[in-house]
Amino acid sequence: MKNIILILSGLILISCNKSGVAKQEVKADLMEVIAEDQAPAAAVAIPPPLAVSEKLLPDNNTSNKDGYTPKKTDTISKKIIKNGDMKIQIGDIKKAQSQVNEIIKKNNAYIQKEEFQNTDMDDNLNLIIRVPHKNFDALVSSFSDGVGSVLSKNISSNDVTEEYTDISIKLANKKIYLEKYRNMLKSAATTKDMLEIQENIRELEDEIDVAEGRLRFIDDRVNYSTLTLNLYKEKVRSSATSEIGFGSRFMDSLTEGWNSFVSFLLGLVSLWPFFLLIPIIVFVWRKWKSGKKDKN
User: Fold this and answer.
1) Burial of residue 172 (number of CB atoms within 10 Å: 0-12, 13-18, 19+)
2) Where in this chain does the record put each DUF4349 domain (predicted)?
3) 229 near 129, Cβ under 8 Å?
């Protein structure tokens, strides 16, 4: 009997231990499930809403997604602007002009401006010549050797590579931003956003036009150099004027002297109102002086 009671007691204890362990395992499993369910909820953060002004600004982080990755600027060659001016004394203006035209044609140049002055002392032909950059030195040498006597010559070179590079880089960036703004305009949600984007587009287009105009001007001055040429001819006195004798010069001097004397007299006559005032002033002054003496 005792043996049966001991066996039953052992079985009851074993079953109690198993149920406790099972409960602990169930609790542990529930805690793990709860922890797994709560962990993602705690990790998720709601992003703050974007303001309208932030939406209008180009997003640098999305440039690669939109395909607007800036391109590397190509290496720009040297940009040198060459200018010069020359003054040449010649003997025959027509002959010299014909020689100049031949030299200009030979060097693929052209005359941008021509001005001729004829005075009593000299003749002056002023030319502004545009010549390809590579032919500039040959043109200057041809004028120096075969046209006449060079009175003056000034040549200058100006390196504008840095300016050209800076403008090119800024221009490329402005075109990228312009394309972004145009794409943003298509998806603008409000009228305010649309007006703000359109204003940014207008400003960028104006800046791009100015930059492109400056680059075209620099390219023109680099590709074609400018030379200002002055052809000078001093006039000689004619034989009739140079052979005037002493007697003729003496008579001319007498005539000039008489003309000067007449001019002086006429000048005095033109002052007659002032001469009339002199006696009046003297009379008043004497009257005042005599009255002062009588009082004394």
Assistant:
1) middle
2) 78-286
3) yes
Q: How many CB atoms lie within 10 A of CB 160?
A: 15
Q: What is the CA radius of gyration of the chain?
A: 51
- What architecture is the 80-158 domain classified under in CATH? 2-Layer Sandwich (3.30)
What pTM value is reported for the model? 0.52
User: Domain residues of the chain, as ranges?
Assistant: 80-158
Q: Which tens digits make up the pLDDT trace of 83-137?
A: 999 999 888 888 888 899 999 999 999 999 999 888 878 888 899 999 999 999 9
Residue 140, both tokens = 């200057």
Give the number of residues written for the chain. 296
